[in-house]
Amino acid sequence: MDVAILLTVFIGGLTLGIPVAITLGLSSLAYILYAGLPIVVIPQKMYAGMDVFVLLSIPGFILAGNLMNRGGITNRIIRFANSLVGWVRGGLGLTNIAASMLFGGVTGTAVADAASIGGVMIPGMKKAGYPADFSAAVTAASSTVGPIIPPSVPMIIVGALSGVSVGRMFLAGAVPGILMGLAMMVTCYVISRRRNFPYRAWQGVGEVARSFAGAFWALAMTFLIIYGLLSGFATPTETAIVACVYAFVVGAFVYRELPLRAVPAIVVDSAVASAGILALVGFASVFGWILVSEHIPQMIAQAVLSVTDSRILVILMINLLLLFVGMFMETIAALIILFVPLLSLATAVGVDPLHFATFAVLNLMIGLTTPPVGVCLFVCSSIARVPLGPVVVASMPFLFTNILVFLAVSYVPPLATWLPSLLPP
Fold this sequence. Notes:
The chain is mostly helical.
């Protein structure tokens, strides 16, 4: 009965449209009151969930991304991507995807990608003759690469939950993220050929060199992050702080597009975004503790294993559950609530924790482009000034492509584990 109260309040809150963090807190409070437990359990478990050193890197990477974005990174990355692929049929669509792959290596968040790249690319694509729904769809779909290519906020959360090194988690997402981006570029090209979308003339090697020089300092930030982690020179938290300093110096003194008077507002915005994520982590930790205390993970594992112990079928069942949950729940909340129970199930059939964490994140990223809670779809349809329905329809080919990629990662472990295996133990 206690668990029934918990789930009833949780599902009811989501149905009413209450924010996920508040819904988690209310459902946990209802359970604790009904079970007769002291309310002090809530702040204790919230603090325990947030008191993880690696989570300090989240505010750092968010601030670094905001500083670089405000400091002139977006236009330079788009220009460089356009010089590489803009001359192909449907070139602006390909540029959109390529820019998201490069931009994701700075911010690590999909919504920031969709808003920043979309704010420039969607009006540009519409002006060049691309349909508004396609322009929004390709932007929303490609923005999901951001949280996969390092740095990645979801990967940081998963590393904290699983005990896997965040550096290894970052590397595990690199190959799948690149594959997802390339697959979407192929899809975009095929659609562009069939619908005869426009393209521009080749601008020459000189334009590639000039645009690369302009984007060099922005792109170097990704190298700085990866090198700091691989070399062991810095922890993820230290790397995030170095990235903040680097982003400030580049934006203010190299690109000279980051006014010093804008920095306080950027810090406040980053703090608010970080507080929202950590509040979600805290409430979800209470919710997760309740599930563990009620032995829900063991019950799920026993129920699934009583049906089949086939590794292939168990991975398929996990993926179907995550796809369904991702349609209705915010990514980080879904990870915190479901990751530990599903990890115990996955490891029971021999799935490596690093491999499982990678395809779980990829799976939930797809939820960002599926209704009814597809945040990136809402952002891009708003920028394109087109109803959500046509954008959803136009995004279906990209959704299908992304599902194929995450299924490949699910069943071919080296796609996730090969690069991290090169790190010293």
